[in-house]
Amino acid sequence: LCATLAADDIEAAARGVVLQIDFDGQRTVETPLGDFFGTAPGLTPYESLPVGITEDPRPRMWSHWRMPFRRSAVVTVRNLSGQPVTLEGTLGIANYRWTDRSLLFHARLRIERDLPSRPMSDWTHMICQGKGRFVGTSLHVANPAKHWWGEGDEKIYVDGETFPSWFGT
């Protein structure tokens, strides 16, 4: 999946243009376009293995995620930004042999507002159950609190661990 986005307010467009994908009749992707490509706010150039954004005058967002499906995929883009936008994109499709180990791709946006900075505490970003593979997250913090500088440790607990198997900054 590759896309270019143009608008007078590109930051608002990247957050206000929403990508929805239904695989086999189930909506598993619903997220702002910029967030899907791992950037917020705006379109900040970077490169990682699965996703990135070029530094071109018209930044190109690209994704190498494999998104298998058994029967159908429906891609919808909705402009909720309140402004005219231009969106161009390409979507690559290849044959895939669905097996009992195949999984559908999921991507979601989660917004949490007015989190207290005192007393200090952990914030749970996601709880998952069942089969799957967690491959990453993109976290954007707009910090209005004067008493917290926006830094913290991410902790990932797997299958009921009492101490996180991933603990980093």
Radius of gyration: 18 Å
Q: How would the global form be characterised?
A: globular
Q: What is the first-to-last residue Cα distance?
A: 30 Å
| Arithmetic mean of pLDDT | 89
Quote the beta fraction.
Answer: 25-35%
Ranges where pLDDT stays below 50 over 5 or more residues in a row are: none
Largest sheet: 5 strands, antiparallel
- Count of helical stretches: 2
Structural class: mainly beta
Structural features:
169 residues, mainly beta, 5-stranded antiparallel sheet, 4-stranded mixed sheet, 11 strands, 28% strand
Give the arrangement of secondary structure elements.
Blueprint: E1 2-6, H1 10-16, E2 17-23, E3 26-32, H2 33-36, E4 46-47, E5 51-53, E6 60-63, E7 73-79, E8 86-90, E9 107-108, E10 154-156, E11 166-168
Parallel strand pairs: 3-9
Antiparallel strand pairs: 1-6, 1-8, 2-3, 2-7, 4-5, 5-6, 10-11
What would your notes on this structure say?
The protein has 169 residues and is mainly β. Helix content is 7%, strand content 28%. It contains 2 helices and 11 strands, in the order βαββαββββββββ. The protein has helices at residues 10-16, 33-36; strands at residues 2-6, 17-23, 26-32, 46-47, 51-53, 60-63, 73-79, 86-90, 107-108, 154-156, 166-168. The strands form 3 sheets. It has a 5-stranded antiparallel β-sheet, covered by helices on one side. The chain has a 4-stranded mixed β-sheet with strand order 7-2-3-9. A hairpin with a 6-residue loop joins strand 5 (51-53) and strand 6.
